[in-house]
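Tokens in:
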């Protein structure tokens, strides 16, 4: 289940709420978790509260923050993460009520090994800013499902690329291309990458680069990067 990650803070005596990205609601036999990208929450930790909104509606910004927002505290990062290169932040949820639909992604049911091939269709799912703005309706209580973009699983030699607009280490990340211009929009970070009905990973951002196999020829490379779900599971294990 995709959720919204937001920043709640006080401004001139009034409580404000800004949407900062997407997250995933997950569960396993040990509990329930909210997961997003570390780069989404790190700038917020010293200037307000990080919250999740489990049921996005077309009015987007919660009308009643105390009822619609769930406070997230004490993020867990990947055990080998020293410079946010894994870009995973996990919050354990203890006895929190967030509604009955849609259901969290069940990690225990996403254990099967997949025989993926380059060129297979993968689905990026989240709440980009442009999508929220286009569907914003302040008087509507209708639920707003996440935006979905289909791409193709790909491999690129990151070590042979010049990359702009991607400041984090990309070692260990997976990659999909042919996602179109929509994936460039902010807000998708922390969303889901799916293959059929199986959760593959966590969206971490877009890659815009140039690949040069021989320092003579140059090929543009554009697409979306994601952290494999195995890295998310390793982070969750630290909480149990």
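Residues out:
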């Amino acid at each position: 289940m995709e959720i919204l990650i937001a920043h709640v803070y006080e401004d001139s005596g009034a409580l404000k709420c800004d949407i900062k990205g997407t997250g995933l609601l997950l569960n396993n036999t040990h509990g329930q978790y909210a997961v997003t990208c570390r780069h989404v929450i790190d700038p917020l930790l010293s200037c307000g509260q990080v919250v999740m909104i489990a049921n996005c509606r077309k009015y987007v910004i919660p009308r009643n923050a105390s009822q619609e927002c769930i406070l997230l505290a004490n993020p867990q990062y990947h055990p080998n993460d020293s410079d946010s290169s894994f870009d995973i932040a996990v919050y354990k949820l203890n006895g929190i009520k967030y509604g009955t639909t849609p259901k969290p992604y069940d990690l225990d049911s996403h254990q099967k090994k997949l025989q993926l091939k380059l060129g297979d269709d993968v689905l990026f799912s989240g709440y980009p800013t442009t999508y929220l703005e286009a569907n914003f309706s302040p008087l509507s209580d209708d639920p707003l499902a996440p935006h979905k973009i289909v791409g193709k699983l790909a491999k690129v030699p990151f070590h042979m690329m010049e990359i702009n607009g991607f400041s984090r280490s990309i070692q260990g990340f997976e990659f999909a291309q042919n996602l179109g211009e929509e994936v460039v929009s902010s807000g998708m970070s922390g969303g889901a990458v799916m293959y059929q009905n199986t959760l593959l990973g966590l969206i971490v951002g877009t890659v815009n680069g140039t690949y040069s196999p021989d320092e003579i020829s140059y090929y543009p490379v554009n697409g979306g990067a994601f952290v494999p779900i195995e890295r998310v599971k390793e982070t969750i294990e630290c909480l149990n």
